[in-house]
Amino acid sequence: MNTTKETLVSAFALFSLFFGAGNLLLPPLLGYNAGEDWLWVTLGFMITAVLIPLLGILAHARLQGTMFDFGKKVSPTFSTIYCIIVYLISMTIPSPRTASATHEIAIHPNFGTSPLLTSSVYFALVLLFVLNRSKILSFIGKFLTPLIVIMLLGVIGIGLFSSDGVMNPSTFEAPVVSGLLEGYQTFDAIGAVVVGAVVIISLNLRGHHSFEAKKDILRKSGFIAGLGLLLIYAGLISVGSFFGTDIEVDQTLSGDMQRANLLRGISITSLGSFGNKVLSILIALACFTTAVGIVTGTADYFKGLFKESQKAYVITGILACCIGVLIGQLDFHSIVIIAIPALMFIYPITIILILLNVVPEKYASPMVFKTVVVTTMIFSIPDFLGSIGLGELTSGLQPYIPFSKFSLGWVLPAFIVFVLSNTLPKGSTVKH
Question: What is the secondary structure of 133-202 as a DSSP string?
Answer without folding.
Answer: GGGHHHHIIIIIHHHHHHHHHHHHHHHHHHS----PPP--SSHHHHHHHHHHTTTHHHHHHHHHHHHHHH
